[in-house]
Design a protein that fits this description.
Number of helices of chain A: 5
Number of strands of chain B: 3
Helix content of chain B: 40-55%
CATH topology of the largest domain in chain A: Phosphoenolpyruvate Carboxykinase, domain 3
CATH architecture of the largest domain in chain A: Alpha-Beta Complex
Distance between the termini of chain B: 14 Å
Largest interface: A-B, 28 and 22 residues
Order of helices and strands of chain B: HEEEHHH
Strand content of chain A: 35-45%
Radius of gyration of chain A: 20 Å
Oligomer: heterodimer
Helix content of chain A: 10-25%
Number of domains of chain B: 1
Strand content of chain B: 15-25%
Distance between the termini of chain A: 51 Å
Largest sheet of chain A: 9 strands, mixed
Number of helices of chain B: 4
Structural class of chain A: alpha+beta
Order of helices and strands of chain A: EEEEEEEEEHEEHEEEEEHHEH
Largest sheet of chain B: 3 strands, antiparallel
Shape of chain A: globular
Strand order of the largest sheet of chain B: 1-2-3
Chain lengths: 288, 92
């Protein structure tokens, strides 16, 4: 089966990723369009191990906890120069994976229990966590955002949950734009600017990329209205929607650096919008 | 909040200058606080950067008087307002 092998090579946002195991690995369908042969050394190597490790993490090593009142997502531990992760199943709250990441963030050991002799090392949310730490090895960030590409401009839309990212995607899709993704994106620095890439989701979608031409921080409004943000305000407003684990000063410095660069090179707007085609004309007229 | 209380909290923030402003981001061990980023204007940036060990509110007000050519009373009010604002921000 295409989605069950002992080794896989993936290309996500131009990062070369290799997974390998002595046990059969199963990838979720969303990863399959991102399969790609890697010629050179991978950027990220993921060693997938069946069964649980003999070591355990100490509560005193805990540095970060992603949870809400009802659910645990993951916990991060700092062990010397490495990071340890305990990932919880989103339905049962039981441990789903235990992982170790080396100090260079380019080698993972992912432990998980096999079911019928098959392991799923990237099962959500492990996959996006690996992608997040992958972005820290380069000038890249992962965002909660949607992006529409009209063949010339890549317009990124970000905002709080319910702000209208998916609605905005539908509106631009109807206007003929390609939707890079409507929920999660990786922005990566290029020689000339920044590109926006999609990432594997729970559904199948081809890898896509667009140049980042503008960032819109959106909210619903009775009328279309726009305000350009500059300086520190632009940086903080955009950075608030990136996926981040702020327990380490170096992570924050790196994020602040890249968002300052993005905000200096790409216009950032506060956009109140009416959810129909009028906003497409409004944005294009404002850009002109 | 006084200057020394803020001084003790300063190491738990990462700061970056953008133009004449300063962005400060708190270190956090909790996903719920990750979007808390603060922007300080030129005066607040000067005050934040002037905070040092053993400095009193009065010392900082004096530095503000020298830097921005404001009178002592205005400087004291600015320092008080800055500390009150920081108190609100940091308790969010």
């Amino acid at each position: 089966m295409e989605n069950q092998q002992k080794a896989f090579s993936l290309s996500i946002a131009d990062f070369a990723i290799q997974l390998h195991s002595e046990t059969l690995i199963e990838l979720e369908d969303g990863y399959l369009p991102f399969l790609k042969n890697i010629v050179n050394k991978p950027d990220i190597d993921i060693e997938c191990i069946a069964g649980w490790p003999e070591f355990s993490f100490d509560e005193t090593q805990k540095v970060f906890e992603a949870k809400n009142e009802t659910q645990k997502f993951y916990t991060i531990y700092s062990i010397n120069s490495e990071l340890g992760f305990v990932i919880y199943n989103q339905q049962t709250n039981e441990i789903q994976q235990i992982a170790l990441l080396n100090e260079h963030f380019n080698h993972w050991k992912v432990y998980s229990e096999p079911i019928d002799n098959i392991i799923m090392p990237l099962k959500y949310p492990m996959g996006p966590i690996i992608m997040h730490y992958m972005t820290l090895t380069s000038d890249a960030v992962m965002m909660h955002a949607s992006c529409a590409f009209d063949g010339e401009k890549g317009r990124m839309f970000s905002g709080f949950s319910g702000a209208g990212k998916s609605t905005m995607s539908m509106i631009w899709s109807e206007a003929g734009s390609q939707i890079i993704n409507d929920d999660r994106l990786i922005i990566r620095k290029t020689e000339t600017g920044f590109n926006v890439h999609n990432t594997p989701m729970y559904y199948k979608d081809m890898p896509k990329v667009a140049p980042l031409s503008a960032v819109y921080l959106i909210s619903h409004s009775p009328e279309n209205k726009i305000k350009k943000l500059v300086g520190a305000m632009a940086v903080t407003r955009v950075m608030a929607f990136c996926i981040q684990n702020n327990f380490d000063k170096q992570f924050i410095q790196k994020r602040l650096g890249i968002f300052t660069e993005i905000s200096m090179q790409v216009p950032v707007y506060d956009l109140g919008f009416v959810p129909n085609q009028s906003v497409v004309h409004f944005i294009k007229a404002h850009e002109a | 909040m006084d200057i020394q209380t803020l001084y003790k909290m300063k190491s738990k923030f990462v700061a970056r200058e953008v133009g004449s402003e300063l962005i400060i981001v708190p270190l956090t061990g909790n996903v719920a606080q990750m979007s808390e980023l603060f922007t300080l204007n030129e005066t607040a940036k000067f005050l934040w950067e002037s905070i040092s060990e053993n400095a009193s509110d009065e010392d900082i007000a004096k530095l503000l008087t020298d830097e921005f050519e404001v009178d002592a009373e205005t400087a004291r009010k600015d320092v008080s307002a800055f500390l009150a604002n920081m108190d609100v921000l940091l308790k969010k």
